[in-house]
TrEMBL record:
The keyword Acetylation does not apply. It is an enzyme of class 2 (transferase). Pathway: Lipid metabolism; Glycerolipid metabolism; triacylglycerol biosynthesis. Transmembrane segments: none annotated. Its EC number is 2.3.1.20. The keyword DNA repair does not apply. Keywords: Acyltransferase, Glycerol metabolism, Lipid biosynthesis, Lipid metabolism, Transferase. It catalyses: an acyl-CoA + a 1,2-diacyl-sn-glycerol = a triacyl-sn-glycerol + CoA. Belongs to the long-chain O-acyltransferase family. Residues 324-465 form the O-acyltransferase WSD1 C-terminal domain. This is diacylglycerol O-acyltransferase. Residues 12-281 form the O-acyltransferase WSD1-like N-terminal domain.
Length: 491
């Protein structure tokens, strides 16, 4: 290899390599974002903006390449911005249903691996209930960065006022001074054991393989190992998620849908009244929506609990501009078998509190790094092992609580989806923006034939909790029994 070619290549981190290798026809490893605007978009202005701000990140001019000795980044000498930024038109009524179908098709279609793995689509003719306007759909491969970082990248394309000069205000709050490397800060509280997870690479996966082959070995580690090894063993020994219509063989087509947004202030007030977080409320509503969806399919879900893997950010926000993947995963219980919405909320909140006191997310980060170095023969079994333990991926991103503008046009709504892994076929996405909460679903077409039937239940689940809070005495603790009585009388 020539010296010039070597200089154009950069080694890819092991975690980013893991996400690149996870690409499957049944699960495209793309993060998909949708920005809906209050007016039409000028394609020339959007393209110029992307050239100035998006391509300021050098990584987006680089291709992701898997070589014999690992993956690396390589500068695309034939880079063509026109290929990466496309103009499209919706058919028919150009309404929400047509936009959802358009985004669903994109979420099912692979990016061109011979080019940098990202693409933007400008839609000029979208008609929403709030009026007509433009739409920008972004698709970026997960190997470039995690969901939080890529949402921040998209936000860096916006301004806090119609005039671009106001961009400095947003940039100042996002691009803060660095405070040490992400990995150093992550490892600082646990220098000993987690360093070993990164250092041993294939040996780590050999231990996972041993645990996979003999559950007794995993059980022994769960009780006798270090904190990090215990968390690893607990993850391996988790039971498979129960079989529902959401679990099974996946297809290649994905379908997306999103709900009308909820007022963020109401969600905050409700969480405070019920003694839990905004995140707890929203995930409990999602669990209730899934419960209703499965019951309408004729499934007996009473008593069932399914799990969702929840990404946990492991870096300060200012590091997002460095791109890359710096997050862990935790397994969250979604008690879809609980008919009482308040009890369902209590169980979600209790699970979240338990997870906050553990190292599960950090262990998952270490496992992803090890997966990037693991022998190819072990990757698929390991990925499938952990995929069987969850039914969904649930992501919640807090966005800016002020109106944003892109190329002078106000952003009206935001939505995004992160990819699922292995045999997981359902993704739940929650993002707040400008005083409202947006909820969306992406589902494998074989497992979730009508994602709209899930998202349309989201507001109803929130209204049940709101009714409970409004009808009860706030001076006393509100219990699940009170909730059941209130719903029985008024719902």
């Amino acid at each position: 290899m020539s010296e010039g070619a070597r200089l154009k290549r950069e080694p890819m981190s092991k975690v980013d390599t893991a996400w690149l290798r996870m690409e499957r026809p049944t699960n495209r490893m793309m993060i998909t974002g949708v920005l809906m605007f209050a007016g039409p978009l000028d394609p020339a202005k959007i393209k110029a903006l992307l050239g100035e701000r998006f391509l300021a990140f050098r990584r987006f001019r680089q291709r992701a390449v898997i070589g014999a000795n690992g993956a690396y980044w390589e500068l695309d000498n034939d880079f063509d911005l026109d290929w990466h930024v496309r103009v499209a038109a919706l058919p028919g009524a150009a309404d929400k249903a047509e936009l959802e179908a358009f985004v669903s098709n994109l979420a099912s279609t692979a990016l061109d691996s011979s080019r940098p793995l990202w693409q933007f689509h400008i839609i000029e003719d979208y008609t929403s209930p709030e009026g007509s306007g433009g739409v920008l759909v972004a698709r970026i491969h997960h190997c470039y960065a995690d969901g939080l970082a890529l949402v921040q990248v998209l936000l860096s394309l916006t301004d806090t006022a119609p005039q671009p000069e106001a961009h400095a205000e947003l940039a100042k709050t996002w691009l803060k001074r660095d405070r040490g490397s992400v990995l150093e800060r992550l490892l600082e509280p646990m220098q000993g054991s987690l360093h070993k997870v990164f250092a041993v690479g294939e040996k780590t996966w050999a231990k996972v393989a041993q645990m996979m082959a003999d559950p007794a070995v995993a059980a022994e580690f769960a009780y006798e190992g270090s904190e990090i090894t215990r968390e690893l063993a607990i993850a391996v020994t988790l039971s498979d998620d129960p079989v529902t219509a959401l679990k099974g063989k996946l297809g290649v087509a994905k379908r997306v849908a999103w709900a009308e947004p909820l007022p963020l202030d109401e969600v905050k007030t409700l969480g405070k009244a019920l003694g839990c977080t905004v995140n707890d409320v929203l995930l409990a509503c999602a669990a209730g929506a899934i419960r209703g969806y499965l019951r309408d399919l004729g499934e007996d879900v009473d008593g069932l609990t399914i799990r969702a893997t929840v990404p946990v950010n492991l870096r300060p926000l200012e590091h997002a501009k460095k791109l890359g993947n710096h997050f862990g995963l935790v397994f969250l219980d979604l008690p879809i078998g609980e008919p009482n919405p308040l009890r369902r909320l209590e169980r979600v909140a209790a699970c979240m509190r338990d997870l906050k006191g553990r190292r599960q997310a950090v262990v998952a980060f270490g496992l992803l790094a090890a997966l990037g170095m693991a022998p190819a023969a072990l990757q698929q079994p390991a990925l499938e092992l952990f995929s069987r333990k969850a039914t969904a991926v649930a992501t919640n991103v807090p966005g800016p609580q002020q109106p944003l503008f892109m190329a002078g046009v106000e952003v009206r709504e935001l939505m995004f989806w992160v990819p699922q892994t292995g045999s997981i076929g359902l993704g739940l996405s929650i993002i707040s923006y400008n005083g409202r909460v947006h909820f969306g679903v992406v589902g494998d077409s074989k497992r979730v034939r009508d994602p709209d039937a899930i998202v349309q239940r989201f507001a109803g689940e929130f209204e049940k909790l709101l009714l409970i809070a409004l009808m009860e005495d706030w001076s006393e603790e509100i219990g699940a029994g009170d909730a059941a009585a209130t719903l029985g009388r008024y719902a």
